[in-house]
Write a structure and sequence with these properties.
This protein is an alpha/beta fold. The chain contains 13 helices and nine strands.
């Protein structure tokens, strides 16, 4: 919780839900009549059927827009809800922050009557395909190595799950780590980095040399020469995955 109490103050400005990703998440939720959002943050991607948001950081809760579902300050590992409290439970880009993934997933399964939907990423694919961590900020990838949860491990904890790739649009409006894969200058903006835990939690001094190289390569045209192929793509699979598990 301390992390997002400290770093989440501007989260709602850079982390606006992308409608194309929202459509995929809402399709995964199916015809659920009531949804609980765990690790809800500021409320991104909550469908109208959301009845409760669970979030450990009061700073994040305070940024939820008017009219959002009610929120309770609690952690995934101990949800203040009865068994089978909702048709579906969703947890989006949050599992890596939990202190005990097995306990948190078990709680999601306990509370969901029918379906659990988890958005995460495959760290192996992310490291291989995302130029920012591969070429400029391997230290940030090293940080993520310590907290990324393998998708097959999550699928196992969920009792089996369908795994869907989540391609990132080139103009993605949700500023998560790889959202700017075709807009490299964005990573030089400290306001953008502040909304990305991958780039805001490691010490700034650790990232400074890589960011300086990126700035230099952009100014000299070397980045664009190396990555001209990216401009032929509308979307990019950088490893984000949606896991859908039914009871």
């Amino acid at each position: 919780m301390a992390t997002y109490d400290t770093l989440g103050a501007s989260y709602s400005h850079t982390r606006r839900p992308d409608p194309r990703i929202a459509a995929q998440i809402h399709a995964a939720l199916g015809d659920a009549t009531d949804v609980v959002n765990v690790g809800a943050g500021t409320g991104s991607y909550e469908p109208p059927e959301t009845v409760l948001a669970v979030e450990p950081s009061q700073v994040m809760i305070a940024q939820r827009p008017p009219g959002s579902a009610p929120a309770v300050q609690a952690v995934a590992e101990c949800l203040p809800l009865r068994d089978g409290a909702a048709d579906a439970v969703m947890a989006l880009l949050t599992v890596h922050h939990w202190s005990d993934q097995a306990a948190g997933i078990e709680e999601l399964r306990r509370v969901a009557r029918r379906r659990v939907v988890v958005l995460t990423w495959d760290q192996r694919v992310f490291r291989e395909r995302f130029w920012l961590v591969r070429e400029y900020l391997p230290e940030a990838a090293d940080f993520d190595d310590t907290r990324a949860v393998p998708t097959d491990r999550l699928a196992e904890l969920l009792g089996g799950a369908r795994v869907e790739p989540v391609p990132v649009p080139h103009d993605c409006t949700d500023g998560f780590a790889a959202a700017y894969w075709r807009r490299p200058h964005a990573y030089l903006d400290p306001r953008v980095r502040a909304g990305i835990s991958l780039l805001s939690q490691p010490d700034e001094a650790v990232l400074a040399p890589g960011l300086a190289r990126l700035a230099d390569d952009l100014a000299g045209g070397r980045w664009h020469a190396r990555h001209a192929d990216l401009f032929t793509r509308e979307t990019f699979d950088v490893g984000y995955r949606l896991l859908v598990a039914d009871h």
